[in-house]
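User: Predict the structure for this protein chain, please.
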Amino acid sequence: MSPDSQLEAAVCLVASNVRDLALRAQFLDEACAGDERLRAAVDEMLLTHAEAENFFAKGRMAVNSPELGELAAAAIRESNGEINFTDEHVGSRVGRYQLLQKIGEGGCGAVYLAEQEEPVRRQVALKVIKLGMDTKSVIARFEAERQALAMMDHPNIARVLDAGATETGRPFFVMELVRGTRITKYCDENNLDTVQRLKLFIQICRAIQHAHQKGIIHRDIKPSNILVALHDGAPVPKVIDFGIAKATAGRLTENTLFTAVEHFVGTPAYMSPEQAEITGLDVDTRSDIYSLGVLLYELLTGRTPFDTKVLLQSGLEEMRRTLREDEPQLPSTMITSLRRTELTLTASQRHAEPPKLISEIKGDLDWIVMKALEKDRNRRYETVNGLAMDIQRYLDNEPVVARPPSQLYRFKKLVRRNKIVFAAGSAVALALLFGLGTSTWLFIRERDTSQREMRLRAEAEDRAKITQAVMFVSQGKFEAADGMLDEVKTFSDNPTLDGVSAFRSVGEWLALQRRWRPAADRYYSLIKIDKLDSLTQVGMDYEAFGVVLAESQDRGAYRHFWQMCVTNFSPVPNESVFIVCVLFPLDKAQIEALKPAAVYFENRCNPPSTNHINQWTYMPISLWKYRCGDYAGALAWSQRGLAQKGKFSACDVDLHLIMAMAEYQLGDASEADAELGQQRDLVEAKFRAGLDRGRSDAGYWFDWYFANRLLREATALIEGSSPPMETVSQSSD
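Assistant: Here is the predicted structure, written as structure tokens:
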């Protein structure tokens, strides 16, 4: 497609979604900017699109009319429901799916409620390219959405179940049917208070963080793309529609096209300043953080920072200028400025009186929202996880990271708004001060500049090395990536998600080759910089590092690591970190140090919570009981873990081995020996088959090495074939 055709298609796509004819005309005046040829081409495309929609609408009405009588009904039955129209419609079939009802429609795709008939019968959501929109660029964007969703596996992101193409060649994909309500409507209809809204918002943040870890930017976060449904009586938000998602690390499909320069991608009221620029090439994960800030603003106040209607009426260029330059009101100020009736309604929807609502938002929540909405993305939260953690700090009555802008920052803003006045004043001041201390100033400036240049040069060189290492990892050249990471010196000062991922990937590669010492070096670097990922991923990195140190036989390094785990995770215990802390027998001091974390996890299971309780929660408690000499307790907790419905292969082995050791200690040697034999067969078969990175249900590589160490301990105890396991504190360096 030529650049002119891309521009025509882009303007037509945006204009076709503006239903108000006056606003559409105003938009076209701005977008075409006097280009009569472009305006004529777009008008013709819009007319053709409208005629096509009208034609097929009449066709559908005719098909559904009673005048067709029995003759049409017989013809439909004879074709088994497969009516060969160019566009899909209710009643037709797409592959093995029967379309039941159209439930949504976007700029280029239509979503249907469909019924799958094989291999299982269930209702799903099926999304397919709209008639007339199957251009190369739209198909590329649609395939990108399909690939983006397929890469992700998170309870708050709609899952992809299937994908394919219609008989006419237009792509479709099938995803789980989310029977929910848009988040803002759900919150208002159920009068959720501020705390309840924030807890829902944290779940959304975790979903978007998961997408970012997979290299996907959503780029269109808004209430209609976040649906809330009840699961076991609890509200669960689901993020949908990655239709304009853009990969942050490589192309999602072979057909991915660059966003056209003139194509305005996203929803204006939720769009970040950099997303509103003339080019959309300089967009990263922080753009989604801005959109989440808009969503949080709306959940708290009932309004967006900039009104959608006003933005559309202002024209394309003014809209861009507003998003790039105008500062939004503080959320508490926005609520205070509402008319009395609007304020009363907004407060009642949040289960609060107006003064109380203003008081809740004013202060910490104001600054959290405004930090997410910073025009300068370098001043926003670095990750979505950082935003979620700050909200959790607010809920926990802890100091938040977000703070009011400094006086220096306010002064810089004032200078930008009054450039001419400050330029003139500065010229006079410089003229008066020029003769005072010029030499000293030049000397200091030269020294500072030299030091800054050296630091920036070193940082730039390290960033280049990290980028090279990331590229090597993506190509499977781990040896080259490992050598490049050896040369990095200053990365811990300013880490990036790509760099963190590179250290993790190389560490895993070394560990799978049993090169334990160099793997330990990579993991040590990783945990020093691992502040960008989710707490779950950070905990898994600690668990992997502990297993690597255990296999390296460096007990001194392991003891140092053990103490670091206890120190860093005492306030909020982490399940994976606790697991690796009970890998070896413990002395009395270590038992006392771990007791608060053990009590924390026991309380989560007594009574069992519905949140993230599975075999991995029961296993470390069982092993903890065994380390404390409570063999009956260890046996009981193992049995509780094995009774869980969700099975995790490596964890299942761990629980059986702990149970075998507990049974032996309680005098049941024959039962213990039988358990040991069964688990030995499973572990040895796993290692014979060869370990790879693994996955959560079957167990990651470090989970199986953990199981292998428990197998050694159980064998030494029950069969006496090797010396008993030593405690960490007793081991020699």
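Confidence is low (pLDDT under 50) at residues 55-86, 247-251, 253-264, 723-733.
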